[in-house]
User: Fold YgiT-type zinc finger domain-containing protein from Paenibacillus algicola.
Amino acid sequence: MKKCTCGQMMELNLRTLFFSKKESITHVPVNVCEDCGVYELLPCIKQEVVNYVTSVKAGQSGGEISLTDLYEPAALLKEILSGPLEDSFQLPEKCKDLIGEHINMLLDLYRFAKSEGDGDWMADINERLEAMTVFLKSIQPSSDIYAS
Ligand SMILES: [Zn+2]
Assistant:
């Protein structure tokens, strides 16, 4: 969570980004200020979005794509936002729980891949773990980081 320049706390949400007339990416995690209507990409998502836009410009078919297909934490965020939420302050807490569960699941999977001696699979799981960890860090309120 982040403070807007107007002083309001920004809220985590999902937005559709249009980067040309025909191409858009849905379910992009952003920080939004409800007061100013300003939103900004989460820093950890920027590279993923840039990679995608570059690949489209390089000739891959564009159209509309959901970031949840490219970036696992966006899928988890979508799942949380589609469920019941009492208020937006619950969101970081819910993310922490759900992503924590997924990290544990991936760690189990990693151990299994390791026992199978599957190096490619291990590398793939490692990347997914890293994406989850970075995402989790970037959405926690800063006070929480110091408290825990
Ligand atoms: Zn604002």
Observations:
- Residues 11-147 form one domain.
- The beta strands are 11-18, 24-32, 39-41, 64-66.
